[in-house]
Structure formats: structure tokens, C-alpha cells
Amino acid sequence: MSMFEFLRNEPIMLAAVCLLLGLVIGSFLNVVIHRLPRMLERDWDSQAADLLDQREMPEAAARLRGEDTGKYNLVAPPSACPHCGRRIKAWENVPIVSYAFLRGRCAGCKARISLRYPVIELVSGLLSAYIGWRFGLTLAMAGALVFAWSLIALTAIDIDTQLLPDDITLPLLWLGLIVNLNGAFVPLSSAVIGAIAGYLSLWSVYWLFKLATKKEGMGYGDFKLLGAIGAWLGWKMLPAVILLSSVVGAIVGISMIVFARHGRNTPIPFGPYLAVAGLIAMFWGEAINRTYLQF
User: Fold this and answer.
1) Could you give the C-alpha distances from 178 to 55, 171, 189, 279, in angstroms and in order?
2) DSSP track, 73-112
3) Is-contact 109 15, C-beta < 8 A?
4) Rounded to whole angstroms, how far apart are CA atoms 32 and 37?
5) pLDDT for 212-235, tens place per residue?
6) Are the CB atoms for 26 and 123 separated by under 8 Å?
7) Which of 111, 113, 192, 193 has the smallest C-beta neighbourhood within 10 Å, fewest atoms?
8) C-alpha pair distances (Å), 4 with each of 9, 18, 126, 232, 261
């Protein structure tokens, strides 16, 4: 019996493999969450500096470029402690285990390591295990893993920066259409309509709100994210996703205003609520649709 057949016939073992894979990917997601926004900022500064050079403003361009011209991407430079600059060794990068062994502190300067790192790893691992158990060793499982990992990264980035980078949302949209070429989740026609309807629905809300209040109620990244969710799950899931994200967003927003004294005019990222609603819809969307259609 091949390993492929073994995992296909043993859902518990497949879930365990997905758990380990999810923990490793979760560690990489922490890198993406930390570095991708900074990569975008460096790119924007570089573009602005080039424009200032064209306008013969070299001093302003030099300030934008700054002194740090070294390579900076998802693999370089190697991970290091943000407090002391000490390079993190391989044994210190083992998901969850290293954090527990180090007691949440840098091995060099003893500065506290954010709890978010093991939380992201744990969430990624548990979600991956559930996906492996639920979908089995299929194309849908592989797609659902990528879908979930992307939403985890987008959630954390949006919380930190209120940005939903095109580098993730647009490939996620196209990948959803590709995965559904053979109907992994929904027929291709439903996926295409879902992508269009998902984008246009929030785009319409954005412009109606802006025309009525002269303010921007959400960012363009939210349109693209809902379009991506529609590409993966089809247009029939969009009402459930919008309803779930709006209800959860309203509850959290009101709670933050009442209990955390969050200013009414302080923006609250909507991407995390869309992401959570997208995952709920992927797992239990059909049951949710049947329930609310009965009413």
C-alpha cells in the first residue's frame, strides 16, 4: 500500500500530517505577516523617490530611500530578534515548542516574544488538521489549506496595518477560479459569478456610503477579498458571508466602543470578519444556507 493510499484510508493520520504541515506553514505565515507590509512600504518609498528624482528633488528622494538599501524579502535577511538583532537559530524556530522552551523570551537579550507567533502557528495547525479530516486527501483539501492559510495571513496583516495586500488577495482570487475548473468546491460558472458579485457588492456599498457621508467606509482590499471568497465558494455563499461578517463586525465594534473606549471615528478593519466568515462558510455554509432559507 502506497503512502497516498494509506493517508486516504486513514483520516486520523492525514489530519496529523496536516497538523504538522500547518504548524510549519504557520511559522512561515508569521514571516509573511511581519515582512510583507514592510516590503510594500519600501517599494512605495522607492517609487516615490524615483518620482522625486524626476522632479529634481534629490534631497527629498534620499530621505525616502533612507540608508538601508539591503535586500529585504520573505527569505532575506535571516530572521533576527527585533530588540537585540541576534540571528534566530534553527532550533529556536520550531513551531510552538521553541516558544515554550524559551518561555516566550529571546535567548539572547531575554526580551519578551509576542504571544501572537505561537497563536498563529497553533491556529494554522488546528485549521489544517480539521481540513485534512473533513475533506480527505483530495484537490479540495489542498485548495482549502491554501485558502485557510491565506486568510490567516490577511487577517493578521489587516489588524496590524489595515491593509489587505494585492500580493495575496489577487492570487487567491485567481487560484479559486483555477481550483474550481473541475468543480472542487462549486461549478466554475458559480465561481466566476461569485468573484464578480463579491467584488461589486462591497464596491457598491462603498460608493453609496461615500456619496451619502463623503467618507470612505472600507478599503478596496475588502472588495478584492470578498471577490476571492466568491471565487472559491461560489455566489450562493456570498449572502451568508456578508451576513456573518457584518453581524460579527457589529458586535465586536460595539463592544470595543463600549468596553475598550475605542473611538467612534477610529477605523476598524473589516478584513478579519470577512476571513472568519469565509472559513465558516467553507465548512458549514450549506447548512447555514438551508437554515436561513427556511425562514
Assistant:
1) 43, 10, 12, 19
2) SSSSSPPB-TTT-PBPPGGGGSTTHHHHHTTTB-TTT-PB
3) no
4) 8
5) 888 777 788 999 999 999 999 999
6) yes
7) 111
8) 9, 13, 22, 25, 53
- Number of neighbouring beta carbons within 10 Å of residue 174: 12
Residue 183's contacts (CB-CB under 8 Å, 6 or more residues apart) are: none
Comparing CA positions, the residue from 240, 246, 248, 251 lying closest to residue 278 is: 240
Helix-helix angle 188-213:238-259, to 10 degrees: 40
**Number of DSSP helices (H) and strands (E) in the chain, helices first:** 11, 0
CA angle 9, 276, 150 (to 5 degrees): 70
Task: Specify the length of the chain in residues.
Answer: 295
Residue whose C-alpha cell reads 462549486 in the numeric block? 186
Per-residue pLDDT of 47-87, as tens digits, reads 777 676 666 666 655 665 665 556 888 888 888 887 787 88
What are the CB-based long-range contacts (under 8 Å, 24+) for 107-114? 108/81, 108/84, 109/81, 109/83, 109/84, 111/81, 111/83, 111/84
Peptide bond before residue 239 is cis, with ω within 30 degrees of 0:
no
Tell me, what DSSP letter sits at residue 265? T
Enumerate the β-bridge partners of residue 105.
112
